[in-house]
From TrEMBL:
Residues 1-26 form the signal peptide. InterPro entries: DUF4871 (IPR032366). The lineage of its organism: Bacteria, Bacillati, Bacillota, Bacilli, Bacillales. Pfam families: DUF4871. Keywords: Signal. It comes from Alkalicoccobacillus gibsonii. This is DUF4871 domain-containing protein.
């Protein structure tokens, strides 16, 4: 007869393994196209104009936020590497959000970002320190040309 503790312990171990595995294999957010060009992120929430992201190299991103009237407000981001759980602020330099002429995209801002290592990174965005949206990006170790 099997011990109920052994069966319960194995079941718990399988559940925890599944949770951790699912987190590190999160799906990269899609690329989409609109009147401003090709973006990645969450369509109709937060979109980034920028090329493939390379580890250790700074890159310009143009952030676009839908549904938030946020001109002259600060925005920020926290990025977490889903394999190592390393957490960083990827934004090296940014400006405050400005109003967009479009009725759909309310605010936008240029920035410079950098990620220290390759992998899958979850990025949580904040406007005036309030959570706005999150998306997932692939950071490459070298050029994808």
């Amino acid at each position: 007869m099997k011990s109920p503790f052994l069966v319960s312990g194995c079941a718990l171990l399988l559940m925890l393994t599944g949770c951790f595995k699912g987190e590190s294999q999160a799906e990269v957010s899609p690329v989409f196209t609109n009147e401003f060009g090709e973006m990645f992120g969450i369509d109709q929430k937060v979109g980034i104009i920028g090329g493939p992201v390379l580890a250790g190299e700074s890159q310009k991103w143009m952030w676009h936020f839908w549904g938030e009237e946020a001109p002259n407000q600060d925005f920020s981001a926290v990025a977490t590497n889903l394999d190592s759980n390393e957490e960083i602020n990827p934004i090296i330099q940014n400006t405050i959000l400005t109003q967009r002429d479009s009725l759909e995209i309310i605010s936008h801002s240029p920035s410079e970002v950098q990620f220290p290592s390759a992998g899958i990174w979850k990025i949580k965005t904040y406007i005036e320190d309030e959570f706005f949206e999150e998306f997932v990006v692939q950071v490459y170790s070298e050029s994808t040309d």
